[in-house]
From TrEMBL:
Natural source organism: Lachnospira eligens (strain ATCC 27750 / DSM 3376 / VPI C15-48 / C15-B4)
Lineage: Bacteria, Bacillati, Bacillota, Clostridia, Lachnospirales
Protein's name according to its UniProt entry: Uncharacterized protein
Length: 381
């Protein structure tokens, strides 16, 4: 594993496209009805090459785009323009790396009031040909969902499927053609005792194929399902494992469930003393051991879920930034010389078991972190 610094990076969003390339999204100098225009760049961390995607097309992050596959040779983005005073044309574009070309693959009209009403649109990309578009209100309630087939230029309203009733609320790549999908909204946000949730492992291609031909027969491996007393407040991937929280309203307790997609082994750890939603802590897998990250008043500690004891504690002047396997990235303010009043920001990288010996320390203003294959990329301003 290498740690690479990419200096003088613009403020923005960074995420891996595949094992070789990263995506950077930054602000552009135009707006549309209060929405900030965006620039999209493809970065090659190994060569420091950077190329803008479809510079001639105005882009807006009105839709939240999520991908089911980790390795892909494409990205999607959206553009918007007025049709009438009350209607907006929303266009979905697909950019292919091999051809270096963008293509408008779907256009729909939406109400002008959707922006002011804080309506959220999600695009869940299953592969280069299929994606779901989901519409939610500002309280996270499902309004509409359908699947689009680019090659056939057709929509499926999902009326014969449970997806139409529950909606999609998280998609996580699980290797190859597989993904983890959380169906149903987090009831801590929507406060609806009647709604249900489930977490399932699916094959992306089989999933869209079965929906296309017979939506009532969907093959999936159900990992968990909520009942009237439980909900799933968060779900994430860490160290090739899926971690999710199962919160019980009645007992005010939380189960941290760790699922290994390769061995199909599920581990459950308890996190008691949870009084309300804000107490639910984030979880990381470090050297095959689950830890909860707890931010206390003067420090940040890592609690071993197997023993329920604090094993690692960041110094009080360290600000936690990122976790990559057993590598932790922090920032801290330092006075390089005692007669200089204004401190400087330093980025430091440690192995969690060696918090007194930094692997890297550099004077720089932290921007973001991302992963490129086995490497950790740190972006500085």
């Amino acid at each position: 594993m290498d740690i690479k610094l990419m200096k003088n990076s613009e403020k923005g969003i960074f995420f891996p496209v595949n094992d070789r390339l990263l995506m950077q999204i930054t602000d552009d100098n135009y707006q549309y009805q209060g929405l900030q225009g965006k620039k999209y760049f493809i970065l090659n961390a190994a060569t420091n090459e950077k190329a803008e995607v479809a510079a001639q097309i105005k882009k807006y992050n009105f839709c939240k785009i999520r991908y089911a596959c980790r390795e892909k040779n494409y990205i999607f983005f959206t553009s918007m323009e007025s049709v009438t005073e009350s209607r907006i044309s929303l266009t979905v574009y697909r950019f292919m790396f091999e051809s270096n070309e963008s293509e408008a693959v779907y256009t729909m009209e939406i109400d002008n009031t959707d922006i002011a009403d804080e309506i959220t649109y999600y695009i869940y990309v299953m592969d280069s040909n299929y994606f779901f578009i989901q519409k939610q209100d500002k309280d996270n309630q499902l309004i509409d969902i359908f699947m689009h087939d680019i090659n056939a230029d057709s929509d499926n309203d999902l009326s014969d499927t449970f997806v139409n009733e529950m909606g999609i609320y998280k998609v996580i790549p699980a290797g190859g053609n597989n993904c983890i999908i959380k169906f149903g909204a987090d009831r801590m946000k929507i406060r609806d005792s009647k709604s249900s949730e489930k977490i399932a492992l699916l094959n992306c291609k089989q999933f869209v194929s079965e929906i296309s031909f017979n939506g009532s027969m969907i093959t999936l491996e159900e990992l968990d399902k909520s009942d009237e007393a439980t909900t799933f407040p968060y779900i994430k991937a860490s160290a090739e494992k899926i971690i999710y929280s199962k919160y019980n309203f009645k007992s005010q307790s939380e189960e941290i469930v760790i699922y290994d997609t390769s061995t199909k082994i599920k581990q459950v750890r308890l996190n008691n003393n949870v009084e309300h939603a804000m107490d639910l802590s984030f979880t990381y897998i470090i050297n095959d051991t689950p830890y909860i990250l707890k931010r206390e008043e003067k420090s940040t500690c890592f609690i071993n879920l197997n023993t329920q004891k604090t094993e690692y504690r960041l110094h009080s002047d360290m600000k936690f930034r990122y976790m990559f396997n057993d590598i932790v990235v922090v920032t801290r303010m330092k006075h390089r010389f005692f007669f200089i009043k204004k401190p400087s920001e330093y980025i430091e990288v440690y192995r969690i078991s060696e918090l007194h010996h930094p692997m890297l320390s550099t004077k720089a203003e932290y921007n973001s972190c991302s992963e490129s294959g086995d490497d950790l990329i740190i972006f500085t301003n």
